[in-house]
Design goal:
about 5% strand, hpI Integrase, Chain A, single chain, mainly alpha, DNA polymerase, domain 1
Amino acid sequence: MSDQEDAPEIPANRGPDCRHWISAFLEAQAAEIGSARNTLLGYGRDLVDFESYLAHRGGDFLTAERADIEAYLISCEAQGLAPATRARRLSAIKQLYRFAYDEGLRIENPAIRITGPGKVKSLPKTLSQAEVEALLQAGRAMGRDDLARARNACLMELLYATGMRVSELVSLPVSATRGDPQVLLIRGKGGKERIVPLSDHARVALGDWLALRDAAQEEARLKRKTPPSKFLFPAGGKEGHLSRVVFHKLLKDIAIAAGISPERVTPHVLRHAFSTHLLEGGADLRAIQMLLGHADISTTEIYTHVLDQRLKDLVLTHHPLANKSR
């Protein structure tokens, strides 16, 4: 993790062993597994919280036993943390101790037999095709000038046309979009690459945005001597591209303009809509897995449950034998 400002802060009064365990573990995750930056930050925050709990009880990573880990999970439950949050924290602890055992930092793994609360599986929230079209239209009209409106239209069209994760969208390099491409090469989680096709609407929006973006970049270069950005959606922040937070807020504004509750609209909901609408159109599940960049098809299969529920509702509503008056 190169960005120290975003890294989880380890209290200064903690010993060097604590700092070494967490930093060494995160470096190994980044180097060997290729974990995404946001994943590493999440691991770091969870492990710092666990370390603080142990320190308060007079312990540390080296001396913690199974009972200490289980007591920590109980304390997390007492704080009202959701099962998914507790499961994530246990996952971080398990991976830390697996790393410590492999590296010889501990002669046994105290977390190996601990089972967590498990995640409650819920169907992904999605939007109808009419609602997505309303969002796309609102995106084209949102913005104080032609440059902003072209950017917002491009953001919305690309997100829905490709099913990209928001982090993949905002950090997309401009070099990947040159030459009116039929497809985009996307670098996803763990550095894995995948190719996704572009719809005609997305290509038009992309071309319109590139023309205005490049003109604005050239003007900035001449006036302020600033080099052109390497990102499709440049911004003045430290990352150099539009942030996820800014796009999240923009999407809420677009939802309001489209007459849709902003609570129902997130970048991930549009990713779900992309997948669900492809299934409704008869797309193959394996193809959707490849387009989404899922490592395991079981992750993709949850979208079939959304479609199954819609088909069930269709039958119960329209089948003559489902009429309760018969």
